[in-house]
Amino acid sequence: MKYPDSPSFYTARAPTFDYIRSLEQALQHSRLALRTLHLLPLPDFAIKSVPEANSVWRSAADLSATLRTSITRSQHRRMMDLVQELDYCRRIAIAAGCTDLARGMSDILAMFENGTRGQQGAAAWTQPQLDAYGRSYTLGRRKTSSARVWMVPVYTPSSPNGEKKPCVTASEIIVNGLPLASFFRLPFDRERILRPFKIAGVLGAYNVFALTRGGGCSGQSSAVAHGIAKALVIHEPNLRRILRKANLLKRDPRMVERKKTGLAKARKRYTWVKR
């Protein structure tokens, strides 16, 4: 009796499951190789040295045409999970200098990468620039709040002979037409907005004008802080690494959890009564 060549022979989409199985095996071998080299699991201080992911993966339609098999959404999602895990292992190998191991994983990931779309996206995106008045414009978000932030350096007066006077700069932050202390009454909200300046060491060096909408005080202050952090990178690109380590350049993805049917709130339950 001759057995089928593939364990997925009796499935509805045998070629698709074969690709998924090959990705699982490649990921298993890659993790084993990295553990043998003592590169997995990575300590906390070494995770920051791993290069960022910059690959663009194919969609389900493109992948179906390339592999010549039909791929459902769930199967494509499973493939992308495996591909991203394998790409993370490849980036660890690149950072550790294991070129042969990284090259082998790159050969596997080549069929899943969409190089054309990645090049177009890189060419279309441009770094925001300052306007004619030296102002930067950024958009910050947090939960349901959004903030438009304009920021300009503080003008430093100079002496008649051309030298700058050694004075203490005093900046001003205006939110929705009101001073910072008048719009945000809670000290914690004001400290959240000033945190990017304190971490970057440029407190008092920029004037800020912000317009915020939606949400409450906490969300609006976080949205303004997000916009200020992005504006600081435009004025001083060397601050990107410091602000990125402080998680100020990335939007906080946490949202309010929705209320569930049969519950009092998102997770609170009604009091159980025996009778």
UniProtKB/TrEMBL annotation:
Pfam families (alphabetical): Ribosomal_S9 (PF00380)
Q: Which UniProt keywords apply?
A: Ribonucleoprotein, Ribosomal protein
- Single biological process term from Gene Ontology: translation
Its cellular-component GO annotations read: mitochondrial small ribosomal subunit
Keyword check for Thylakoid, yes or no. no
Q: Name one GO molecular function term.
A: structural constituent of ribosome
Q: Which Gene3D superfamilies match?
A: 3.30.230.10
Protein name according to UniProt: Small ribosomal subunit protein uS9m
